[in-house]
Write a structure and sequence with these properties.
Number of domains: 1
Radius of gyration: 19 Å
Bound molecules: 2-oxoglutaric acid, fe (ii) ion
Oligomer: single chain
Order of helices and strands: HHHEEEEEEHEEHH
Strand content: 15-25%
CATH topology: Jelly Rolls
CATH architecture: Sandwich
CATH class: Mainly Beta
């Protein structure tokens, strides 16, 4: 107990930038572990198994990660501005932490309406990116989404874009194509470096 207290105190005694660095490194590592797990379950839902499932999971465990912090200041006329223009992420998946439970993320529905994604306290939004859309041969879509601003409150979100390592070719899953007998609707590139 005493050692634990000293360690915690040691952390709080560090200069601010050191604390920030440690916190960001820890956050990134946790996101990496989470992404590999989430991608594994997406693969399993597609019926991927054994060697290919291991390769998929491993490639996200060793992949490239980018963390972007978004800040949307409050705006007295929110209907006249947009926080983040409509786009689909090119990542494999994106993990989004919303700070402060202020709604802002919207997804374009099948019938072309913008639907607000309500923040879940302590939750993380998993957004599918184009690399997983290609891998699933279009079974799953990378949705168009945008961020709107709030009239009274500033909103902060942290997006972690998760990419597979270069060991994973970016194309429809071979096991999925074999199991469904469907033609690939995307071509295969040797790795995500070619995709970006
Ligand atoms: O802030 C948000 O809710 C969306 C962020 C986002 O889509 C992005 O950074 O790509
Ligand atoms: Fe996005």
């Amino acid at each position: 107990m005493r050692m634990m207290k000293e360690n915690v105190q040691g952390f709080f005694d560090l200069p601010h930038h050191e604390k920030q660095k440690i916190a960001l490194e820890k956050y990134s590592e946790d996101m990496r572990k989470l992404a590999a797990e989430v991608v594994k379950y997406i693969g399993m839902a597609l019926g991927i198994h054994e060697g290919e499932l291991d390769l998929l999971t491993k490639s996200f465990g060793e992949g490239k990660y980018e963390v972007r912090m978004n800040c949307y200041p409050a705006c007295p006329e929110p209907e006249r501005v947009i926080g983040l223009l409509p786009h689909a992420d090119i990542s494999g998946i994106t993990l989004l932490t919303e700070c402060g439970n202020i709604p802002g993320l919207q997804v374009l529905s099948k019938d072309n309406c913008w639907v607000t994604v309500p923040p879940v306290p302590g939750g993380i939004v998993v957004n599918l990116g184009q690399i997983m859309e290609v891998y699933s041969n279009g079974t799953y879509r990378a949705p168009d989404h945008r961020a709107v601003v709030n009239k009274e409150k500033e909103r902060v979100s942290i997006a972690t874009f998760c990419y597979p390592s270069l060991s994973l070719p970016v194309g429809p899953s071979p096991q999925l194509l074999a199991a469904t007998g469907l033609p690939p609707i995307y071509q295969t590139l040797s790795n995500s470096g070619e995709f970006l």
